[in-house]
Design goal:
Blueprint lengths: L2 H20 L1 H5 L4 E2 L2 E2 L2 H12 L5 H12 L3 H22 L2 H30 L4 H30 L1 H21 L7 H8 L6 H35 L4 H29 L2 H21 L4 H15 L15 H29 L4 H28 L7 H16 L1
Helix pairs in contact: 1-6, 1-7, 1-8, 3-6, 3-10, 3-14, 4-6, 4-14, 5-6, 5-8, 6-14, 7-8, 7-11, 10-11, 10-14, 10-15, 11-13, 12-13, 12-15, 14-15
């Protein structure tokens, strides 16, 4: 197995464990108690906001730090996730929401910066060669952690208690921290090192495309984040699901998307059309949330639409290396992480405030549908700008690489 494939395998398993523990609060929601009372939707949103808020800045700081200590940053990030889960587990024992939020702050800093580190390294390893497949595999295995959380955690919490589950999560984080530090031995790709020595600026026209990509990423985050925070309780209140049924429905979204992720990655690597796939993803998300709001079809219709949309949405990742130079890529990914976490901070709070106005979740769903309409407008604008500026965001990676290799061989002859 090549070194780059080994890196993806180890990083993906670590991300699986990290995501499993990350979504425990949403999966078991009211099984957690704070101050003697079951956790409310607002308190769950606070935990996710505490996770995301520091990461509106921290990935940039760690991006600069990585330039000095390279892989040594992994030891710092592993320490953050370890401390974060230790504090969170203690908070569950003490039923303290403030201490639990503090633990989520530490955990979020470690997880998000680790994600940026891995995405940057994978992009450098696979640039021009099955990048969408490699990125899709990394994201899919990570999402499998969310599937397992929503599928197994509610029943585990009901059978053995939330404290037992959180203690088990702490054990998993110890294993994840060990895997994170094991990546220290993997060297930076040669082309990444060379690009840092001789920086190359991206074309001026690409700055406009990058700005549009930033906007689309932020809107996707603002749409996706509140849904996962409120969905377990929304399905219970609005559609009379049990806690276990709600968790398993959400697990189906991630579980189905995992199997589709590689297929979508293969398609865009060989055929292109990444932006049109992203557009189709936004349309599917609109159908799903319009159904949650208007109830014109059964809940499985929405679940199926979201399951299809999730892997298609991830196709914006392979677009990023096309609009920035290799030397700018790590900081660009850090900025994207900051934007996503800004969305993860603000949007769930807006949704939780709307729940106070409309406890039946209709106002929150209307808010999400409004964001999707804005997103559709931005994606269409990105497609038009890409066509006008010749950005090449819809070009297939593999056929382009093969053509380039053929031309190079002809020149050498």
């Amino acid at each position: 197995m090549k070194e780059r494939d080994q890196f993806v395998a180890v990083a993906s398993i670590a991300l699986f464990l990290l995501y499993f523990v990350y979504d425990i609060p949403a999966a078991i929601n009211s099984s957690i108690a704070f101050g003697g009372s079951p956790a409310t939707a607002h308190q769950v949103a606070v935990l996710y906001t505490a996770y995301a808020l520091p990461n509106t800045v921290c990935p940039l700081a760690f991006g600069h730090l990585h330039g000095f200590i390279r892989n040594g940053i992994l030891f710092i990030l592993a320490t953050f996730v370890f401390l974060g889960q230790a504090i969170f587990t203690t908070a569950i024992l003490m039923e303290s929401i403030s201490l639990a939020a503090l633990g989520r702050v530490f955990y979020g800093i470690g997880l998000e910066s680790f994600f940026v580190f891995c995405e940057s390294r994978i992009t450098a390893y696979y640039a021009g060669s099955e990048l969408a497949v490699a990125t899709g595999l990394f994201l899919s295995i990570g999402r499998l952690g969310t599937v397992f959380t929503f599928y197994f955690s509610p029943q585990t919490a009901l059978s053995y208690g939330a404290i037992f589950l959180c203690k088990g999560g702490f054990v998993l984080i110890c294993l994840a921290a060990a895997l994170m530090t094991s990546l220290f031995t993997y060297k930076s790709p040669k082309d990444e090192d060379e690009s840092e020595e001789t920086p190359v600026s991206a074309p001026v026209s690409d700055s406009h495309l990058l700005f549009l990509v930033y906007q689309c990423v932020f809107l996707f985050g603002a749409i996706w984040a509140p849904f996962y925070n409120i969905a377990p309780l929304m399905l219970q209140i609005r559609f009379s699901f049990s806690q276990v049924e709600a968790g398993r429905f959400l697990g189906c979204v991630e579980g189905s998307s995992i199997f589709l992720q590689s297929l979508v990655g293969l398609f865009v690597d060989h055929c292109g059309y990444k932006l049109f796939v992203v557009l189709a993803s936004a349309l599917l998300i609109l159908v799903a949330h319009a159904n949650f709001l208007l109830r014109f079809a059964s809940v499985p219709v929405s679940i199926g639409a979201l399951a299809l949309a999730a892997p298609m949405m991830a196709c914006y990742w392979p677009c990023i290396p096309k609009v920035v130079s290799p030397s700018q890529l790590p900081m660009t990914l850090s900025r994207i992480s900051c934007l996503l976490n800004l969305a993860y901070t603000v949007s769930p709070l807006v949704a939780s405030l709307l729940l106070r106005i409309s406890p039946d979740y209709s106002a929150a769903e209307l808010y999400i549908c409004g964001l999707i309409c804005v997103l559709l407008y931005k994606i269409v604008g990105l497609i038009w700008a890409n066509q006008k500026l010749g950005g090449g965001l819809n070009e297939p990676e593999i056929s382009k690489r093969c053509k380039g290799d053929t031309n190079q061989n002809d020149t050498s002859v």
